[in-house]
Amino acid sequence: MKSIFNFCCAASLLLGFFSCKNNNQTSLPIYGEREAVEKTVDGKKVVDTIYHTIPAFSFLNQDSVMISEKNFENKVYIANFFFTHCPSICPTMNRNLLKIYEQYKDNDAVRFLSHSIDFKYDQPHVLKDYANKLGVSNDHWQFVSGTKASIYGIANNYLVYTAEDKNAPGGYDHQGYLVLVDKDKRIRGAYDGTNDEQVQKLLNDLPKLLNESKK
Q1: pLDDT, tens digit, for every residue of 64-116?
Q2: What is the model's pLDDT at position 172?
Q3: d(CA 105, CA 92)
Q4: Which of 44, 77, 99, 201 has the highest local Cβ count within 10 Å?
Q5: Nearest to 176 by CA among 154, 151, 150, 158
């Protein structure tokens, strides 16, 4: 199942790469499938492109407060999927994400969103303790939990593989992507959070997206 998902995900990413509005080197690609929609503007029929976007969501955060996509309105943000007792990729992934957070935690244009895939154990107080130990000092980085259907469903929209798997370390299998999302809720990059070169690429790409957002 995972290999099939990864194939589909890779195909979607390739489609997204070629859906970039601007082919110059300073513009980041737009990931995911796109749809051509015909509409009428000033009496003329034109074709507009509808890009894949992150849908509306509602999750409980580490402070037992319900947050939604509205908390990220007009923000660039980085999303990922983890669980607090993960014995494999999560510690490295979130330590690397912390490096980015430390650089941007006082920048009001940037947010961070970590979804726990352990819907059984990772309740708000557990997430709060995890955030504190990690070194998160403000609400610009949200740690959220939800039902299995809601968390795993939103993971699909981020093009990230997640699964409950008793044979996987810690009982859950998932990818360690750090997903860069623009203020229009479009995916603009996916980076391996355990790979230093990929994390550096994210650090290089984030200012480009912030500059784009100002236009």
Answers
A1: 999 999 999 999 999 999 999 999 999 999 999 999 999 999 999 999 999 99
A2: 97
A3: 19
A4: 77
A5: 158
Q: What sign for the dihedral angle of Cα 13, 167, 115, 147?
A: positive
Distance in angstroms (rounded) separating the CA atoms of residues 24 and 21: 9
Q: Flag whether the pTM goes above 0.90.
A: no
- How many residues does the structure list for the chain? 215
> Which amino acid is located at 157 in the chain?
N
Q: What is the pLDDT of residue 185?
A: 98
Statement: residue 121 has pLDDT above 60: yes
Q: How many CA atoms lie within 13 A of 80 on its CB side?
A: 27
- Residue 49 dihedral angles phi and psi, to the nearest 5°: -105, 125
Helix (H, G, I), strand (E, B) or coil at 196: helix
Q: CA-CA distance, 81 to 162, in Å (whole number)?
A: 8
| CA-based end-to-end distance of the chain | 42
Give CA–CA dist 155/182, Å, rounded: 17
Write the DSSP string, 125-143: HHHHHHHHHHT--STTEEE
SS3 (DSSP) at 163? strand
Classify 74 in phi/psi space as left (phi over 0), alpha (psi -120 to 50) or beta.
Answer: left
